[in-house]
Design a protein that fits this description.
The chain is built from 14 helices and six strands. By secondary structure, the protein is mostly helical. It starts with 5 loop residues before the first strand and ends in a 9-residue tail after the last helix.
């Protein structure tokens, strides 16, 4: 049977679209499969202008298409592996994946290949740390996808990181420490923050949680915030006399030594921003909270701390990080004792 007034075209994706196109009438697209009873019913309703017989609106699609990269990210953000990450890690990873989805979120994640990841990495070649963070975020996303049977391969797994020549956060010098101390004397909150960072060697995410309840018999005991849910690291370190003296002369909170102007504990990000301003006040625009952790590690190594001792202080699980500082310290000591051999006055 031949049906009148039917026309068809093909969209850019290769899909065939069928319409009823009658002279003097608005064309009506038919959604049902040709040859079926439902298609005929839809056709005759269109011919007879019974538009009420045809749904006036296409059923609303899900806001996120299943199978899209954005859909996969949403699944990941609700998963146990993601929730087990530290607060800061979750924030950074979600920000990275959200930026990727802003451009490619509607594309099917199953079609992502290593070449696509390499292309995105190379777009940030002038910022290798950012490029590598993006690759790492995609690796973890697809690790999750494989574990939860959403994918069978990881397109980012074999995409190498770019080499970075950055040394990361600036490590404070002794002159910079003195400059900060001159601007923020003992008794100020800023000086207490400096002392906690320098004399414990901990990250800002731990500093904001430390309080009197963590001290017993002169020892500070706590579990580091980083990887606390997955691979917790519990430390016990002595409270140095320099730190205790500053704590005793400073007004502190009851459960956290450092509190905001409203008497509440800082968040990690909030403390970082606040401390950044205290550095600016001291004329130290290149200094940061994390840089004090590096300065402490360098100071301990130069004073003779071993790699194992550094690991115990800073909570590192491998010697890789500790060896960077001990190697630099040994070089300095050896150079100091060996430079005499360059002197022409040596006989």
């Amino acid at each position: 049977m031949s049906l009148k007034y039917l026309s068809e075209d093909t969209d850019r994706h290769g899909n065939v679209r069928i319409y009823v196109r009658r002279p003097g009438h608005k064309k009506i697209r038919l959604k049902e499969t040709p040859g079926t009873r439902a298609f005929l019913d839809e056709y005759y309703a269109a011919i007879n202008n019974k538009q009420s017989a045809v749904p006036s609106k296409v059923p609303k699609r899900d806001a996120i298409d299943r199978g899209s990269l954005r859909w996969l990210c949403v699944q990941y953000f609700g998963s146990a592996p993601y929730r087990e990450l530290g607060e800061r890690t979750r924030y950074v990873r979600k920000s990275l994946l959200d930026r990727i989805c802003a451009k490619d979120g509607d594309k099917p994640y199953a079609m992502m290949e290593p070449r696509h990841v390499r292309a995105r990495r190379d777009q940030n070649a002038d910022r290798p740390e950012a490029a590598n963070a993006m690759v790492k975020a995609l690796r973890q996303l697809f690790n999750f996808a494989i574990e939860y049977d959403h994918a069978t391969s990881n397109p980012a797994k074999d995409v190498p990181y770019l080499k970075s020549h950055s040394e990361g956060f600036h490590s404070w010098s002794m002159d910079e420490l003195t400059k900060f101390e001159d601007r923020h004397p003992i008794g100020s909150k800023a000086r207490l923050a400096l002392a906690l960072l320098l004399y414990t060697g901990q990250r800002r995410s731990d500093i904001v949680r430390l309080g009197p309840q963590h001290v017993k018999d002169g020892w500070l005991s706590f579990t580091q915030a980083k990887n606390r849910a997955r691979k917790p690291v519990t430390l016990s370190i002595p409270v140095l006399p320099e730190l205790q003296a500053i704590i005793d002369q400073t007004s502190t909170g009851n459960l956290a030594y450092l509190t905001t102007a409203f008497g509440k504990p800082f968040t990690s990000n909030g403390f970082g921003n606040w401390f950044r301003k205290r550095c600016d006040e001291a004329g130290l625009p290149n200094c940061s909270a994390h840089g004090l952790r590096k300065a402490g590690a360098a100071l301990a190594a130069e004073n003779g701390a071993t790699e194992r001792q550094l690991m115990a202080i800073f909570g590192w699980s491998t010697m890789k990080e500790a060896s960077r500082y001990t190697k630099a310290a040994r070089q300095k000591v050896l150079a100091g004792s060996g430079m005499k051999h360059l002197s022409r006055e040596q006989r």
